[in-house]
Amino acid sequence: MKEFLSREGVAFTAKNVDEDDRAYDELIARGFRTVPLTIVGERAVKGYDPAALKSAIAGRSGDH
Fold first, then answer.
1. Which of 12, 56, 31 is nearest to 2 (CA)?
2. Residues 34 and 41: beta-carbon distance below 8 Å
3. What's the CA gap between 19 and 43, in Å, rounded?
4. pTM of the model
5. pLDDT tens digits for the chain (64 residues)?
6. Which of 18, 38, 51, 63 has the greatest CB tally within 10 Å of its CB?
């Protein structure tokens, strides 16, 4: 996931739910229990789904 986002030129913050209780709580609060979960703006992309990630990235182009 990190490699994909880096190749796409997307800045990101990685969080490890095994080591960070706050990150785990955020995951659960969003209604998910599995990782990876990538949040792009308000959109959550579950698992490694390159097409969904590219769509989410493209959809936020006006956000920055």
1. 12
2. no
3. 24
4. 0.81
5. 899 999 999 999 999 999 999 999 999 999 999 999 999 988 999 999 999 999 999 987 554 4
6. 38
